[in-house]
Structure formats: structure tokens, C-alpha cells
Amino acid sequence: MPAEKIFEIQKFIIHNPKPWLRNSLDMQVIKDAKEAIDEGKKVNLDYKILNPNRVFGTILSNEVSKIWEEKGYLKIL
To answer: Considering the chain, what is the average pLDDT of its residues?
Structure first.
């Protein structure tokens, strides 16, 4: 049974990503957890998060929300 839609949100593109974001920990996790994000498979990953990674999870959560939107679990206005 598919998950029900809980939120309807609007999506805004504020600016292009900074080049240094390409090397962020989020990008590594997205790469390492690709099957989990795309197919819902379980994954166990271990990373050391330091002060430069203090915004960890922001890019990752955006990527997950885009996948949910494409699969119909989240409607982006």
C-alpha cells in the first residue's frame, strides 16, 4: 500500500549550488545510499561528522524529497 500524502509544499530555486557542495558529506551519503534512496532498501552507513559538516542532511533530505515527489508520496506545488 503506498504512503498517503501528508504535505503539499512549494519548491523554490534560490540560487545555483556552490562548487564546494559537490564535495560535501551529503553528496557522499547520497552516492553510498543510492539504492536506499531510490528503492527503499535498508542501508547501514557510518560517517564521522565534524564542524565543517554541521549542515549535514540538508542536501540529503532534499534528494529524498525529490524521489518521494516523483513516486507520488509528496506533492510539490
So the answer is: 78
The model's pTM: 0.60
Give bridge partners of residue 44 from the DSSP assignment: none
pLDDT in tens, 44-57: 999 998 887 888 88
Range list of H helices, the chain: 25-32, 34-39, 58-70
Work out the burial of residue 29: count CB atoms within 10 Å of its CB; fewer than 13 is exposed, 13-18 middle, 19 or more buried: buried
Could you tell me if 6 and 68 are in contact, meaning their C-beta atoms sit under 8 angstroms apart? no
Round to whole Å and give the CA distance between 16 and 61: 17
- CB-facing half-sphere around the CA of 40: CA atoms within 13 A: 5
